[in-house]
């Protein structure tokens, strides 16, 4: 098995020792490994697009942002593996991928493929989620120096800083042609959010549709109710949260520039057009995953 490993040395503050153990185990399992260290944002995608032969599998070593960039450079038919060394690692939670390098490597070599269909946000693929409104303000407001030092706490800091803004902006959403309104939206492929929290029990990463969560009431108290429900995995039970399956979503907002986040990183401005791809990507998971 030929494997290309793409490592982001900044994800999770750097995990060189774990990377060495991961690569050593891949080789022990009989894989031929080519290793690449990314040099900056966007480099993983460019590097892969420049390869004539990516091998049987490309493994993203980093967080969700690194996996996103690998996914955007992945050649058709090549499997995608993940060894999670990032801050939140939502995709790894979704696919029940271990953080131990030896176990993660064994899954890459001896596991199975499952079909995961990515969506495209304004032409760029995402694998887990994108969001607008509060969700995007939080991601855009993260202080990178705090994230490097304190990890997930940087998101908590940004969440607190953005709370008062919630409800001030209003969005028009078309969900498979159906017009709806909201004060924030998250479009998700999987169930998890921000690590191990369950955002949507309706979502299924193996289904070629996204789940659209619309936050349809304004007000800080509504937002706080939603955040509490997220901790309990009961978001879809909150009165004022709509949850719909879709293949195509469009989001607009009148007035000033409004940011979007995709897979936990800033991803441009509204308007947003989100469309499911036709073909799934084969993703490496444990044999026991279902
Ligand atoms: N060599 C590099 N130097 C600086 N930034 C990089 C480099 N390589 C990749 N990046 C950028 O780092 C961003 C963050 O990486 P990633 O999301 O994988 O880690 P994380 O933020 O620690 O984890 P998570 O997304 O799980 O919270 C990526 O979106 C990518 O653009």
UniProtKB/TrEMBL annotation:
Gene3D superfamilies: 2.60.200.40, Probable inorganic polyphosphate/atp-NAD kinase, domain 1. It comes from the Bacteria. Keywords: ATP-binding, Kinase, Nucleotide-binding, Transferase. It comes from Alcanivorax jadensis T9. Residues 1-125 form the DAGKc domain. InterPro entries: ATP-NAD_kinase_N, Diacylglycerol_kinase_cat_dom, Lipid_Phosphate_FormReg, NAD/diacylglycerol_kinase_sf, YegS/DAGK_C. Pfam families: DAGK_cat, YegS_C. This is DAGKc domain-containing protein.
